[in-house]
Amino acid sequence: MFTLLSRNAAVVFDPNEDEELLQLFKDKGTEKVHILLTHGHYDHISGVEWLKEHTGASVFCQAMCADRLANSKRPLSRLVAMVLAVEDMKDGGRRYQDFKGSYKPFTIKADITFDKEADIKVGEFEFHVTSTPGHSEGSSCYQLFDKMVFTGDTLLKEYPVILKFPGGNKKDYESKALPFLQSLPKDCIIMPGHGEPFILKETKNI
């Protein structure tokens, strides 16, 4: 999750539930909150409804992502369960059992969607968003002033993009997402879905 503040507005990428975030909005006098989603996997949307309930936030995402989020039968729980089970095998944890006991299907309604490309302005921030399928059908990347790119799981520093999850597609990644990533300036800052921000030239995953 990343948060940007601009005057009386805020942008939140892929929110989770965080009480400190609400306190920040209160302290800064934030009146409008905009949720921007990089894709619809559970670990990137778990706090969307919570944040909407507390702030009245609007939700923006790629059209295919919106379609999946509106369907309570989407395979999100299966995806998360698979990831947690693998982690449990590494250290003997109980993540899978805990998740299985607490997960309840839910839907999310996007307020604004786009297909291939779009421009968004929130306060002083101007984003150009591009559809980058591959990790999921509805994955997208957000460029801020051509200097910073929020990539979600389409690009991580240490690990190659995962294409084997439900909705993943190697052909789409290689024909659409990868060319986009390779077109970015080598000195731009990448804000990934997991891990710390990094300079594009620091990764070997494109």
Average predicted local confidence, pLDDT: 89
Number of helices: 7
Strand content: 25-35%
Helix content: 25-40%
Distance between the termini: 23 Å
C-alpha-based Rg, rounded: 17 Å
Shape: globular
Number of strands: 11
Structural class: alpha/beta
Order of helices and strands: EEHEHHEHHHEEEEEHEE
Give a short account of the largest sheet. 6 strands, mixed
Strand order of the largest sheet: 6-7-8-9-10-11
Low-confidence stretches: none
From the structure above, extract its key features:
206 residues, single chain, alpha/beta, six-stranded mixed β-sheet, globular, 7 helices
Give a description of the structure.
- Helices cover 32% and strands 25% of the residues.
- It has 206 residues and is of the alpha/beta class.
- The strands form two sheets. It has a six-stranded mixed sheet with strand order 6-7-8-9-10-11. A five-stranded mixed sheet has the order 1-2-3-4-5.
- Helix 1 links the parallel strand 2 and strand 3 (32-36).
Sequence-ordered SSE layout with sheet pairings:
Layout lengths: L1 E5 L2 E5 L5 H10 L3 E5 L5 H4 L2 H8 L2 E5 H7 L6 H16 L3 H8 L9 E3 L2 E6 L2 E7 L8 E5 L3 E5 L17 H13 L6 E4 L5 E2 L7
Parallel strand pairs: 2-3, 3-4, 4-5, 9-10
Antiparallel strand pairs: 1-2, 6-7, 7-8, 8-9, 10-11
